[in-house]
Amino acid sequence: MRLLKEPLLHFVAIGGLLFASHAAINPGGGRGANTAPAIHLTAADAEWLKEMWTRQWRRPPTDEELRSLVADHLKEEVLAREARALELDVGDTVVRRRLAQKMTFLLDDTIRTAEPPEAELRTLYEMRPDLVRAAARVSFSQVFFHREQGDDRARISLAALSNAAALPIDHGDRLLLGDTFADQDEQALANLFGADFARKVMTLPVGQWSGPVESGYGLHLIKVTDAPPSRALPFTEVRERLAHEWRRERQETANAQVYEGLLRKYRLVAGAAVRPLLGSRANLAEGQP
Amino acid sequence: MTKMLLQVLSSASLLALSLGMPAWAQGVGTDIGTLDREAAERAFPRPPYSPPAGRNFPARPFFGDTHLHTSFSMDAGAFGARLTPRDGYRFAKGEELTASSGQRVKLARPLDFLVVADHSDNMGFFPQLFAGKPEMLADPTGRRWYDMIQTGKGADAAIEIIVSFSQGTFPKALASLPGSSAYRSAWQETIKAAEETNDPGHFTAFIGYEWTSNTGGNNLHRNVIFRDNGMKAGLVEPFTTLKPLGSDNPRDLWKWLAAYEEKTGGDVLAIAHNGNLSNGRMFPMIESFTGQPVDREYSESRARWERLYEATQIKGDGEAHPFLSPNDEFANFEKWDKGNLDLSELKKPEMLEYEYARSGLKLGLKLEQDLGTNPYKFGMIGSTDAHTGLATADEDNYFGKTSAMEPSPERTSHAFIKSEKATIYDWETSASGYAAVWATENTREALFDAMERRETYATTGPRMLVRFFGGWDFEPADAQSRSPAVAGYQKGVPMGGDLRNAPPGRSPGFLVAALKDPIGANLDRIQIVKGWLTGDGRLEEKVYDVVWADADRRKLGVDGKLPPVGNTVNVANAAWTNTIGDPELITLWRDPEFNPAQRAFYYARVLEIPTPRWTAYDAKYFGVQMPREVPTSIQERAYTSPIWYTPG
Fold it and tell me: Which UniProt keywords apply (chain A) (predicted)?
């Protein structure tokens, strides 16, 4: 980056730039015109610039805008060529990463795998409960008690609530989160009340008041009203997810293979200090004198 | 080849557009017929016995980050970010990952939603090779590659194709056949990542990007968020700032947003951030691009597209500044006021008015009086702006602004930005923030709609629950009931809403409540911040302490100030206790100085008790000594969207 701030470099670059533009604009005249590198601007280029503009602005450029696009394109081309000639792209981390990223995309897409065979999806369905099972859920009512003297009050209310005629609203304190929760899984409860509370609630019996259970807020009496257990979703429902996972796995393997293939195109020469850092590739590397 | 592929893409866009239109048009203009009394009673039966049944107001806030960068942002990549958008979404969903620095990392709790918002400039076009279209199969080489790919020899095909590219022997027929190849951008990859991780009901992965207008180092950045899926978002390339295709003027971004909606029937919004680094340009009265006063068109467009503002994030808190709010003892918070984003220009005090959220809200009242529309009628959210692919805003789990800032013994002593004029150190970055959204369910549509109605609040990291309602008919009992939100929605408007038609002699009441983060610190107090425009055109503000913890031992002083809540932070152990503060605060507050003739806004600020700042966790973990100027404790907070009062 410091290099970019060098005035001398600016001078050289601007000089070269002026020369190149001059040659491009006056192809027929001037000394060395025949040997000057050409910048070709075709109807297709203009079409492409229009297309780019239209995609960005959702309308075609006006004539004036198009003229400015062409001027800009030309300038960018000249500067880019000059920059390459000066090897400004060499050692530029951003350029290097960008190129590597482009290559990765290219590989990813090329390797895009075929439709997964049904049988393999069925196998995945059996092997990967994490993709197939819906979490256990719970619906419940709660009565909340502030921590101060909460223990005693909760125990008294627990006894009172065993009477079916007792109303929960006559007991405990307000909690802003509310008193009834429908169809929550453990993660959702953990986010609302904390992980310990969520774990505990998932194990409570259905149809009766239990507790007190402690949360980050205080103490809770809980009556679970419904607790559908974890279940495997039907194959058709998770087919897409499984296909996705199948492709992801295949793609990972294929990417690794391609990388290995590309790596083989090179001789790897590594200094003694670097060799240990290469791990299993160390034996591929030649030593550096 | 580039050109041809673009043509292919755009004709595909047209096709998708024409297919998409009818479905979108269906929801509009439905004829519902005549509603007679009997039908109305069937449609609106008496409320069920069970109070929560049939309620469809939001029961809980959803927490997320609307502003996360990954390696697809060129600056993030340059700082060593290796994680992709897909990684970012997976991490937010609660998965454990290896960070770019090689350390294992996981959130204490998953987020409910995430927007990967990589910079649109240089997100660029990346070539892709595609497979399987009839035209391609007609070419012998294409056919052979296709077969190789289909039979699992994609890797070999890839090498052949790459070689043919590099040697210039790629079949021309393939390159020029419509539909045979497509260009894909990092944008398409971003969309794919969101589509794959979006899980309605459990986790929302929004499609989005950041438009990074930064001319002269003055931050006018906006994040663009799509309500739509990839079918629509994929029809466009993100708007950039580089001329001539892009523009650094927000007016052009708004035109792009309008064009997107018009052409696709989609729905987008934009969220600005870091006015603190704009050097007086974020909430202008005079537009920096033209030198002209903000006009009606600017006001209407901004009000339409920018309904939220990101008021807190890693690069400093943007709610209020002590210079502007000298009577607000909490305004001096995680402050970044040395200069603009690259510190090429130092801050001058007269810039501050146009940079901070509270001040912007005030200026909006004045502009509304003059122009008829309030351009700065925004709600509040927080987000991280992390460039690591990791949406971490917890003080004890902070992975920094960039991958180079991931936890290490040295990170607090590094310079984050250094110019000849000033330096901002890494320790000044803030482990903040998140967006809380009161939506009816965790889906793109519900969250987006809640954002558009500004039913949101900003937090600096903790997930406290905050309710805020304004209305004319609240009674003290509403703050005592078991479900204050029922009264809130029935008798008032929630945060982000409007109050009009003041009944004679009545002051607006505000029902405000907060519940601490279930695994976090107790609360210190709730404040209501009021801003208003006086009859003679002055902009005023006042902060009221409306309810506070430990009320038995804390009373308002004669100066009207509340004594501090105390501080239990043990810096050496990076620990604190909930022995002070309260887990829950609620009250009904009426404006004692209400003037029905004056425009005003009200928002709530909730303060936690002091807890260790991320620098204290670093000092303890790495056994390092922090320089004396480094703060080691922090009072985390939340800012709600305002409720506006408009006379007449």
Answer: Isomerase, Rotamase
